[in-house]
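Task: complex structure prediction.
Instruction: return structure tokens for all chains below.
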Amino acid sequence: MRTVFKTSYDADIRLFKHGAQAFWYGLLLLAVVALPWLISDYMIGEAVNVLIWALAGLGLMVLTGQAGQASLGHTAFLAVGCYTNAILQLKGVPFLVSFPVAGLLAGIVGVIVAIPALRLHGIYLAIFTLALAVLVEDIIVLAAPLTGGISGLNAPTIKILGAEIDRYGAPKLFYYLVLAVVVAVTLLYRNMLRSPLGRSFAAVRDSEISAQAMGVDLARTKAAAFGISCAITGLAGALMGHFAGTFNHETFNLAIAIQLLLMIVIGGLGSIHGAFLGAIVVGFMPTMIAFLRDYVGKVTGTGSIAIPGLEAAVFAAILIGFILLEPMGMYGRWFKIRTYFELFPFYRRDMFKRQKSYLKTERMR
Amino acid sequence: MSSLQLIVSGLANGCVYGLIALGFVLIYKATEAVNFAQGDFMMLGAFVALGLTTGQSLALPFWVAVPVAIVIMFVLGYLLDVVIIRQLFGQSQTTVVILTIALGFIIRFVAGAIWGHEPQTLPTPFAGQNLRFGGIVIGVDELMVIVTTLILTLVLYLFFNRTKLGVAMQAASQNQLAAYYMGIPVKRVQSMIWGVAGAVAAVAGILFASKGSIDPGMGLLGIKAFAAAVIGGFGSLPGALLGGILVGLIEPFSSRYVAAGYSQIAPYVLMLLVLIFRPHGLFAQVYSKKV
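Output:
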């Protein structure tokens, strides 16, 4: 059992709570830096895929996990980031400029979208964002002169200071590029949580009325949450474009937006770890299912049969299991196990029991 | 095709959207949750009816299969609430939204595994018959859709406003704790409403399948029904029907008068406009608290 004595106000918001924590995260960083030298090029691609999903998950986590605003339409911002980055590079703008601009533009679009969305709550917001996700596919097709329409665009090779970074040509370099972005965003995220802005996000999530009473400007906080969330998602979209190579309107379909939301719920809402854990599940799910299907086919002698929709159904079943049995997601489970050992004989089952609340209508305000 | 013809076919389509939207509204009215799987419920209802009429073992006549399918969907909806949704009692609405999205994936997979992914049609006794009024031709199937929808909406409206159970459902939604104090069995009432929503979905599915083809991906029609429910105002039964009809009417007219590519986004643009300028729909059900 470890007791952290807080002797100053700064200790409460320190990046690492104690030395051991800093040590383990340092070790993790070392491991991910060494990773490409230990695995095959194919697996590096898989790892990059997980990292990009994690980045998109971090983006949505700011909005849904921290500020409590559900969004089913984050593909719209993935698309903005992806197309901005690719179009600027095709026009000759270097990656080091086009990449941040893509994030910035996605963030600005996010704030613009947030203005009408600020008046909406819960269900209405989910539907509003759902409509965005539906519309973005059509808008990409309609803006064909810019986006290439149905035939789509090819993401150009990234050039940074003379080095050519390509998913197939230089997988290790591409991995390090994505890793650097993810680590930078994670640090930014962590620092944001320590700042007044991050705290006001949590206040808005837990109770809008109390947040208002404490002097939090609801509209500005929500708009900021949208802006930051969409900017991060835009960066993820830009990387996703480079990872996919070719992309068109179908790359950013509704299923991706839904998968993104389900992913962070499985991982655990409101935690950075959740975005990564969820991304690992999403990234390795297709491989796992293909493996299991071949195995079942071999055992039963039916050969491997492709069943459309199986992947989505398994994913959905896992999600329902989590919602029913562990609403706090994978990170919540890990947190409970850790607390159990930290407090060893004193852990009690009801420690994380949630206060049940009775529902009152939203239609009376 | 004359404009009048467009109006009739738009009305018929709109009524199906309206029926799905009714399913959303029913559940929202009674439990404050939104069932994102309502479109998939509709698809399942249609396939259950199809399985009953054309199955190898039991080829029931149409008029027997329809009530049986409705009853099966009622039971499925009821059980869904008892087994899964009730466990979420007291959690946020977003949880139910995410859960029902996941449920939709599973329903689509199961339906695809049982009935295949090819579009199929439901054979009905009134398929292919037409009525002529002056210059316009109205299919009996379209007329059936419109009449059934109107009757069902009226029945549900009266149910919610006139019967004891309907009022109990509204009370349970407005304040669960107070409803408990008044002796309303809130949990059973909520299961009932999921059952009713399942039955309504079955009706919508059967009507849709009678005038077109169905396949497991049809549940995505639910998104259009969302537009309908939002335009009408979540929480208002006539609003849902009106929203559905509006969406149904906009579709054929926009595809006729607006450039291709822009026409299919018209319903969503209308929905966004309604959300921006009248967030609670045309038939708003939001009341300010009087202090």
